[in-house]
Amino acid sequence: MTESQTVLQPELINRLDSKIMYLGQLQSAIMTHQIPQIYELIDSQQFNEQIRQRAHADSNASLAQMVVDIHNELATFLAPELIHYLKAHFQFLVFEAIDGEPAIYQVFIGDWWNHRQIGTLDVLALTLEVDQKMMLTLHNVSQLPDGVNNNDNQVREIKQIMTGLQAFLDDETKRKLEVQVIEDQLAQLKENKSGLLGRTDKKAREELENKRELLLASQQRVPEVKEKLQSHQAEILKLEKDDAIHRLELEQILTYFDSVKSFGEKISYLYVDYLNALLQKK
Amino acid sequence: MTFDNFEYAQQLKKDLMVMQRWQVLVETLSQAETTTDILEVVDKILAFDVHEATILRVASEHWYPSTHWVTLAFAKLASMSSLSETSVVLPQLQKVAELHFAEFPNASFRFTSAPLVAGGYYLEEISQNLRVLYWDMSRRRFYLDTNQFGQLVQTEALQLAGLPALKSFQQRLTGIADQLREVDYDVDVIGIDAKNSLDLTMRGKDLPVDVLDSLFVAAAKQHFVLKSHQGQKTGATLQIADVTLDIIQNRDEKGHSFWHYDIIDNSQDVTLYSLLQQLPFLAQWYNVWLEQVGLKDHREVFVE
């Protein structure tokens, strides 16, 4: 044994001891179902600062690094209790596991058709990251007067355009008949072409031909107009779907919270609220 | 042209014998009490009508077309299938009797000939000109026209009569269908039997996503919520008071999706048609997407 080895040995032993102790504590916490302690062991700095209210606590990141390879197993162990808590406190949220990623859950708002993902739950970090853009939209919708939707104006405008397009299509039969009448009149003029009243006939023929041309050009637009109508219909459906979803989402949030803002705040306190709730149960 | 009096008398004699047979047939129809007897005699009447007694037939104003006798036979089956009264009315100057079912005081029905090579008859509501069903005695087929029956239940005449009337009418049709099934008819009256409201197959395959989105939006406007189906099945579900309307996706062997309705109603009172009658938003959606979401029926016999 060299001198340097002798000098380093106690430190090495200490470090090994602390690692062994860390793993032992984690094992014991799991065996005794001490969930707050598990979270403490995963990130002691956050736990001490937020739960014990100790400012500038030390980090145990180097120790916690040892169990990174069993994070999935830890998440699988921790998730049921957490999901149970979340379902009790946010009845309208739906949590869907992601295959192969037990630490991450997709969080949806409501169980209706087209329900939207509002955020992502990280079981180990105890965070529910919400889509801030969605929250802002919901906040804005909540400020609208009763019975008014976000997209009402747009829907109204598109419906106006559609009324015009539909009127154009409804005139199809009329246009066809007019073309037919003009064809007959042109045929009549051709029959009467005996040299008499030549100039008047020519002018009348030209007018009729121009009119026919215009009508036929309009007729040619029919498929394009039909396509436009369909696309506007799809556009309206999309806008109305968004409105319906916003309405349902807001309705659910306001059933349990005073405002979208307080719902967002409650979510942001998940770490503290959840662990305190568990500690109080003890 | 010389008139052969003797020959004419012989023809009359033949016709009188035919008429005697005719009288027996008509009397038998009026007295028939079983499905088999009714069907047998109406078969003979229809055959008779087509082939015999030309002299008297042409001359008589009391000669009625085949649709009239089909109406009478159907009235018999309808009476046997319901406690609600069925009456047969022959309007003045008409050659075909009308059917009146007590449950629908504002509606009247009649049979018309189907313009098909196979023949057969349509039962239709007169004022709305909407078909209810197709009845083919020779090939033993009895099919509901789901499109037009779906429209009929949405008309004012049937809406005024209300749900109990529709229930009674559907039970009547179900009763007739059961009678015919017993004598080996091919029967398809999908959707009218409240006791068999599962697995009602839709016509369309691979529904565009807009179909259910539209229902979601239409329902939400009326404060109903179309939800994703929870559990083993894929699809959507709509809760309407105590009734659940499930719209379920299935896959065929080629990988195409096809859909069906399940109506879950513990009291077994509700059918898809009663939902269409009671829920205008559902009816409107059903009408718009009929080619996809309409019930799968025997469209081949329903000439538009």
Account of the protein in words:
The complex is a heterodimer of chains A (282) and B (304). By secondary structure, chain A is of the alpha+beta class. Among the domains of chain A are: 3-70, no CATH class; 152-251. Chain A is 70% helix and 9% strand. Chain A has helices at 3-31, 35-42, 44-50, 61-64, 71-89, 132-142, 152-170, 172-191, 198-220, 222-256, 260-268, 270-281, and strands at residues 93-98, 101-109, 116-122, 127-130. A four-stranded antiparallel sheet of chain A has the order 1-2-3-4. Chain A is elongated. The model of chain A has no long low-confidence stretch (mean pLDDT 91). With 304 residues, chain B is of the alpha+beta class. Chain B has two domains: 10-188, no CATH class; 200-294, 2-Layer Sandwich (TATA-Binding Protein). Chain B contains ten helices and twelve strands. Chain B has a five-stranded mixed sheet. Chain B has a five-stranded antiparallel sheet with strand order 8-12-11-10-9. Chain B has a two-stranded antiparallel sheet with strand order 1-2. Chain B starts with a helix and ends in an 11-residue tail after the last helix. The model of chain B has no long low-confidence stretch (mean pLDDT 90). The chains are: A alpha+beta (282), B alpha+beta (304). The A-B interface holds A 111-115, 234, 237, 240-241, 244, 247-248 and B 210, 212-217, 220-221, 225-228, 230, 236.
By DSSP, the count of extended strands of chain B is 12
Shape of chain A: elongated
Strand arrangement, largest sheet of chain B? Answer: 3-4-5-6-7
Q: Characterize the main sheet of chain A.
A: 4 strands, antiparallel
**How would you describe the oligomerization state of the chains in this entry?**
heterodimer
Report the β-strand fraction of chain B as a percent range: 15-25%
Question: How many helices of chain A in DSSP terms?
Answer: 12
The global form of chain B is elongated
What is the string of helix and strand elements of chain A?
Answer: HHHHHEEEEHHHHHHH
Radius of gyration of chain B: 23 Å
Overall residue-averaged pLDDT value of chain B: 90
Mean pLDDT of chain A: 91
Following the backbone from N to C, one meets helices and strands of chain B in this order, namely: HHHHEEEEEEHHEEHEEEEHHH
Q: Number of helix segments of chain B?
A: 10
Low-confidence stretches of chain B: none
